[in-house]
């Protein structure tokens, strides 16, 4: 693994710890780093004059578990939420995603589309809750019906994202590298 990949790997391990101190910023930065890690490695390799090897062959293997690492930190934060309905919903969504990632690991890369059926709705709900908690507490669901409505609304963009990544297998980082960098 290149020095650039090790730097980004270290960032993916250290940055999520900021979620404990600043939930909104730490979560958004962790999500952005997850989304841009491949782009950052390529940019650093160019800046450091390293050969373009990226993360190597095992990128998918450790990427999903690095995702679960920062999502686990968010799940720990959920345990302190005073709203029991939101807390239990968030933990259930986290466990659902963990089950999907585990099934993906057990069945292998050739079953990549399996992840589509276990969307990461936990992260969207977590962000929704912590943003509402800070800026609009009245929007936090307190009844099961309002929780379902929030989850359905949050699922719409997540469904599109999961489809693009896991069924269409579009690589957004390639577009960012080509058109932005």
The number of helices is 7
Average of the residue pLDDT scores: 86
Series of secondary-structure elements, N-terminal to C-terminal: HHHHHHH
Tell me roughly what share of residues is in helical segments.
Answer: over 70%
Structural class: mainly alpha
Proportion of residues in extended strands:
under 5%
Number of domains: 1
Q: Could you describe the largest sheet, including whether it forms a barrel? A: none
Radius of gyration: 17 Å
> Quick one: overall form?
globular
Span from first to last CA? 23 Å
| Count of beta strands | 0
Weakly predicted, low-confidence segments: none
Structure description:
The protein is an all-alpha fold and 181 residues long. It has one domain (3-179). Helix content is 71%, strand content 0%. It is built from seven helices and no strands. The protein has helices spanning 3-14, 23-48, 59-78, 84-107, 121-135, 144-167, 172-179. Helix 2 packs antiparallel against helix 3 (59-78), helix 2 (23-48) packs across helix 7 (172-179) and helix 4 (84-107) packs antiparallel against helix 5 (121-135). The mean pLDDT is 86.
């Amino acid at each position: 693994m290149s020095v650039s990949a090790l730097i980004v790997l270290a960032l993916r391990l250290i940055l999520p710890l900021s979620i404990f101190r600043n939930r909104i910023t730490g979560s958004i930065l962790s999500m952005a780093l997850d989304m841009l890690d491949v782009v950052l490695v390529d940019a650093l390799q160019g800046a450091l004059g390293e050969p373009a090897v990226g993360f190597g062959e095992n990128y998918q293997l450790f990427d999903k578990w690095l995702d679960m690492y920062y999502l686990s930190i968010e799940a720990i934060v959920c345990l302190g939420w005073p709203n029991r309905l939101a807390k239990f919903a968030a933990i259930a969504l986290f466990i659902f995603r963990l089950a999907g990632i585990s099934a993906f690991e057990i069945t292998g890369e050739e079953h990549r589309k399996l992840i589509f059926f276990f969307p990461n709705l936990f992260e969207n709900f977590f962000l929704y809750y912590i943003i509402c908690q800070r800026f609009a507490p009245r929007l936090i669901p307190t009844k099961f019906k309002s929780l379902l409505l929030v989850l359905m609304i949050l699922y719409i963009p997540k469904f599109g994202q999961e489809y693009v990544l896991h069924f269409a297998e579009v690589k957004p980082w390639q577009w960012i590298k080509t058109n932005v960098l």
